[in-house]
Amino acid sequence: MKIALITGSSSGIGMATALEMAQRGYHVIATMRHLERGTSLVAKAQQLGVMDRLQLAQLDVTAPYEHVAEIIRDLLSKSGPVDVLVNNAGIGILGPVETLPEKAWRKVMDTNFFGALAVMQAILPYMRERRQGMIVNVSSVSGRAASAGFGAYAAAKFALEAASEALRSEMLPYHVDMVLIEPGNYRTAITEHEYPADLHNADVARALYPEVMEGVEEFLNYHRTIADDPVEVARVIANITENAQPPLRVPVGRVGEVSAQEWIRRRLRESWPSMEGE
């Protein structure tokens, strides 16, 4: 039985991916920062009859690297080597570049980039030694292009994409695949966590950048109510793990595909300004 380790599995894309891969026969190590938030995952796994293939584990990806590595070692000593790592843990703190406090930038980077990096560095030695495995990093359309109000989130995703692209080349001799999943707007809990006021400065942001903050609020309302089902992303991830020659970047959903096309056009315009307006 193949083994998959998934971070951020208590909700959204992580939960959907854990259930999808368990249904496809994987033994899934579903990690999350707080185990008490895994009740929904357990309930759905029981409904689907896959609880025997699901193992919940506590993992805070923002803990010191040595602690993350120790937890990974302990998990692998009991389960065996991981075939697929899905780095999904993430948070979203939105606001203008000028008004978003340094603490907020660091919090986003710690989870969305350094957290993913810590887990990769802990698991890569095992995959490299076995000369097989796949790492799937859940990025975003914001990993290609940054929008107003999304500076911190996009910066972390840009960093994740850069490291992933470099890692893909570095792992070629060891037959370890590296894939970036770039979802559009899907229903997740990424923006639902409560943060102290010192991470937002929302009143100042609204006064200085009313249009930006209005756009952020519109996004949040859409994200909470109308956005697409994360099960779609989970199925794409599960399908990718069965691909013998996966691509580096996989945009998911209408927004993801449109954003990928816009990214190409933008880069072409930057390289050849004469194309502006075409």
UniProtKB/TrEMBL annotation:
Domain Ketoreductase residues, every copy: 2-184
CDD domains in alphabetical order: 17beta-HSD-like_SDR_c (cd05374)
SMART domains the record matches: PKS_KR
Molecular-function GO terms, alphabetical: oxidoreductase activity
Keyword check for Oxidoreductase: yes
Keyword list, A-Z: Oxidoreductase
InterPro entries the UniProt entry points to: KR_dom (IPR057326), NAD(P)-bd_dom_sf (IPR036291), SDR_fam (IPR002347), SDR_oxidoreductase (IPR051911)
Assigned protein family: Belongs to the short-chain dehydrogenases/reductases (SDR) family.
Official protein name in the record: Short-chain dehydrogenase/reductase
Species classification: Bacteria, Bacillati, Bacillota, Clostridia, Eubacteriales
